[in-house]
Each structure stands twice: as structure tokens, then as C-alpha cells.
Amino acid sequence: MKTPTPTEIKLHQVSRLLEVSFDDGSVFKFSCEFLRVHSPSAEVRGHGIGQETLQLDKENVTITEIEPVGQYAIKPIFSDGHKTGIFSWQELHRLGTQQEELWQNYLAQLKAAGHERKAH
Which of 12, 67, 71, 106 is geometrically suited to a Cys-Cys bond with 75, CB 3.0 to 4.6 A? Predict the structure, then answer.
């Protein structure tokens, strides 16, 4: 099965959303915080199962720049200095289709760690 490819990527600075439209008709809106805490970087995911690092205090993070990576991915530059996550088209689409479940899991992990998100 062919990986959906973005037809449009829009960064909305005021609402801090990245909107990605794919050629399969799907459109996903990701908060900058969501993308930051789900970065595919080793800093966030580690180098194997069980090595993930829970990301804290990312409520107000923004994306300051988006760099293309070949014809297959983007690399967002976040306002907290994080810039090592390369989001492939496949990964962006996966995050979009599982966004609600992933977000609820993240909130549960924060709660289990005794951390509360700050209102922004």
C-alpha cells in the first residue's frame, strides 16, 4: 500500500497548529505541543523500547521553522531548541490517524508521573 503524501503543509503561528493535507483526502491538525512530545527523535523516543523520555512543560512550544528533508519528510525546528526529529510522511500520517489515542496516553503518563500541564 502506498504511503499517503502531503499535498499541503501549513503552519498556523497564532493557533500553534500544523495542518497537513494528504493525497488520500485526510487532513490533520497537530498542535506544536503534540508534535514536540511525539517527536521521532532519539532524545524523545530513546534508542529502544523502554528508553523513552517523558517530555514535560511543552505547552507553549511553537514551531519556528520547518525544513524539508528530501522528498519524504520534514524537520520542524521548535522554539525550545529541539530540532532533531525528522517526521516522515508515513509517521505524520500515523500520528494523525492515532492522534486522540496518543494524546490521551501522553496525558495519562503525565498524571502517572505526578505532573500537571500548565494552562497556556
Answer: 67
Give the chain's domain count.
1
CB 72 within 8 A of CB 89: yes
pLDDT at 48: 73
Domain of residue 50, CATH code: 3.30.2020.30
DSSP codes joined into one string, 17-73: EEEEEETTS-EEEEEHHHHHHT--SHHHHTTSTT------S-TT--EEEEEEETTTE
Q: Residue 71 is part of which domain span?
A: 6-112
